[in-house]
Amino acid sequence: MRNNRKTTETSSSLHHEPTYAFQAEKCKAQDVLVGDPLKILSDLRPTPQEDVFPSEGVIKLNDRFFINLNNYHLNSSYNQIQGHSHHLLEISYIKKGAGKYHIDNRIYGIQQGDIFIINNIEKHGIAVNPNNEMINMVIHFEPRFIWSVENNFFDSRYLKIFYDRSSNFQNKLDRNNPATQHIRNLLLEIEGEFFNKLPEYELMVKVKLLNLLVLLTRHYNYVQDSPETSAKNRQELLHINKVIDYIDQNYKRSIRLEELANLVFMNPSYFSTFFKKYNGISPTEYIARKRVYRAIEYLKSTNKTVLDIAITCGFNNTSSFNKVFKKITSKTPSDYR
Q1: What is the DSSP letter of 118?
Q2: By the 8 A CB rule, do 101 and 171 touch?
Q3: Average pLDDT value over all residues in the chain
Q4: Contact between 315 and 289 (Cβ < 8 Å)
Q5: What ranges do the domains of the chain cover?
Q6: 5-287, superfamily in CATH?
Q7: How far apart (Å, rounded) are the C-alpha atoms in residues 329 and 49?
Q8: How many Cβ atoms from other residues are within 10 Å of residue 189's Cβ?
Q9: What span, in angstroms and rounded, lies between the C-alpha atoms of 37 and 313?
């Protein structure tokens, strides 16, 4: 990892799945083997190393990631204005430092105490001012973190700040809005829950995040009020959740694009566009990330051989595993042991 960016590690779990891009696939959609290692390798562009990092706090259910928190310590040489994107929703809180935040075609000044809201398709990156050090606390979460697993209850209004934005939307919260200080406090309380891990801390993290999301909708003129749009988004998020659950349960084997599209009654071509709208990446990319992410966890927490891990995570052999692993992480599997 580059020496101008580090995270404070308090857990061996690795969450943040690396960012990379694929070319369009020139074949019949129903014949696409999602996550095929050879296809991944041919289309994959190198991934910035700093996109693979340990998590200070992570909440999972049945080995599936939902939310994590990291504090990034960035020095004055840190400059990532080219940006990156990922399939996770993000809330960024600047604890210390100054610089510029590049988010798509906008540039925001950064001061201590600023909060930024970033969805899963916005390209974003930070440049730290000279003679400055920055601490950026970042929460990444999947939309389904706010899903109630027990009764499948979901209200897409919690996510309006990410998906139903008005023309007044700004990624940077208004510092003069009284609600901004309340949101800062909630972010620090969420950090405290991750750190202390008191009984049922996962529930408290969820409660505080839901509170925060309601404040964003209630006190900022950043969302549009359209019942039709909200209903459409809710149905689409239900579809996405169904597909992601299926991938999480089956990523260790070959999955065809048509197979995923059939789950939500779409043709494969439209499904690929639909999936990328809500995840910022294609189904192929998502599965590749899932496999490499899981492999890193095995490497860090077990004594399994590389071959065993490769096969367990859906690769046919160590050769394809090593090549894809290196392409994604810029490291070898042995670097994680």
Answers
A1: E
A2: yes
A3: 81
A4: no
A5: 5-287
A6: Regulatory protein AraC (2.60.120.280)
A7: 6
A8: 15
A9: 11
pLDDT surpasses 70 at 255: yes
- The answer to whether 208 and 214 are in contact (CB under 8 A) is no
Mean pLDDT for the stretch of residues 193-221: 93
Has this prediction a pTM greater than 0.90? Answer: no
Please give the structure tokens belonging to residue 82: 């080219």
- The sign one gets for the Cα dihedral 74, 278, 183, 194 is negative
pLDDT of the residue at 6: 54
Strands 33-34 and 255-256, by their bridges, are antiparallel
The amino acid sitting at 290 is K
Q: Measure the CA–CA gap between 234 and 212, rounded to whole angstroms.
A: 19
d(CA 17, CA 295): 11
Burial class (CB in 10 A: 0-12, 13-18, 19+), 9: middle
Give the tokens for residue 278.
């809500």
CA–chain centroid gap for 159, Å, is 15
The pLDDT of residue 172 is 97
CA dihedral sign of residues 168, 69, 284, 29: negative
- Provide the residue type at 182 as one letter: H
Residue 204 has pLDDT above 60, yes or no: yes
260 with 247: CB under 8 angstroms? yes
Q: Is 274 left (phi over 0), alpha (psi -120 to 50) or beta?
A: alpha
State which amino acid sits at residue 127: A
Torsion of Cα atoms, 56 then 59 then 65 then 67, to 10°: -70
Contacts of 208 (CB under 8 A, 6+ apart): 186, 189, 190, 193
- Structure tokens belonging to residue 108: 């925001």
> β-strand 89-96 against 134-141: which pairing, if any?
antiparallel
- Token couple for 241: 């959740």
User: CA-CA distance, 285 to 22, in Å (whole number)?
Assistant: 7
Q: Has residue 54 got a pLDDT over 60?
A: no
